[in-house]
Amino acid sequence: MKLPRLVLAAMLAGALAACGAPSPGQGPRPAAAQTAEIDQSRQLLQELRAKNMLVEGDKINDYMDAVTARIDAQRGDGKSRLKTFIIKDADANAFTSGAGYVFFNAGMLAALENEAQFAMVLAHEIAHEDLGHVSAGMAKRQQVGIASAVASIGGALLGVPGDITNLVVGTAGQAYYADFSRDQETAADRLGMRYLAKAGYNGAEGAKSFAVLKKMYGDNASIFAGHPTSSSRQADMQRLAREEGATEGRVAASAYLGKTNPLRKRVVNALEQAGKDGPLLSQMRANLRAAR
Ligand SMILES: [Zn+2]
């Protein structure tokens, strides 16, 4: 497929809860909250499709769906089915809007080094939903309004149609991400690691996904919001991997790099054309070389 040029969607990622408010714990959630999540997620998906901002119907989607099914199978009964989507945004980010919808920016897929790391980010995001963090944050987000969040996507596109010169790395949404507490992030790390381990992935390798993001963004990555310094998080994640018996298992570096490389090339081209040099691009170039 021909992949349209990448566009700025930093506002989107910020407005829609990337990474987790006080946790009511795992268990059945109020029907109203579930309905609100479904509405929000469907509306978001509809808008993204209408604006041609999703990568769909590509081989990479089939690959992502297979990994998604492995994680989904570990979540237990009574959950919304896990679904993943790719947004044409070169920023390295991922977030959930609830109802089992997890969105990956193309830049995140390009930056990660193997399937275990991708599975870790996915498992962490869906763990926020399964722990009730997304619905707990719903009221706050509704004050911001899904409509204005979605409108900001349109605004970005209308302002720079098909252009990525204004492509930025995680700025607009920082304050919003910070709504997730340190406790919530820690809980999502633990449950995410459990899913990863049960799915047969190498958790010690999966935990390195956070090291990859730290290398690019320092402690300022949206996904780190609410966390202690990422170096202590790394140590915590490695401890979790040991506790869950996940120091070995599936890594699948060549499969991941091979499947994601066509998309990675486009992300790299987009960043180069925009004159965006730096650790993000270096990481992606290293992955391009490793895939050969
Ligand atoms: Zn998180």
TrEMBL record:
What the entry lists under CDD domains is as follows: M48C_Oma1-like
**Textual note on the cofactor:** Binds 1 zinc ion per subunit.
A Pfam family that this protein carries is Peptidase_M48
Q: Keywords, A to Z? A: Hydrolase, Metal-binding, Metalloprotease, Protease, Signal, Zinc
Any one GO MF annotation of this record: metalloendopeptidase activity
Do you know which InterPro entries this protein is assigned to? Answer: Mito/Outer_Membr_Metalloprot, Peptidase_M48
Domain Peptidase M48 intervals: 82-238
Tell me its cofactors: Zn(2+)
| Signal peptide positions on this chain | 1-20
Q: Give me any GO biological process, just one.
A: proteolysis involved in protein catabolic process
Q: What is this protein called?
A: Peptidase family M48
Give me the Gene Ontology terms describing cellular component. Answer: membrane
> Which family does the similarity line name?
Belongs to the peptidase M48 family.
The protein's superkingdom reads Bacteria
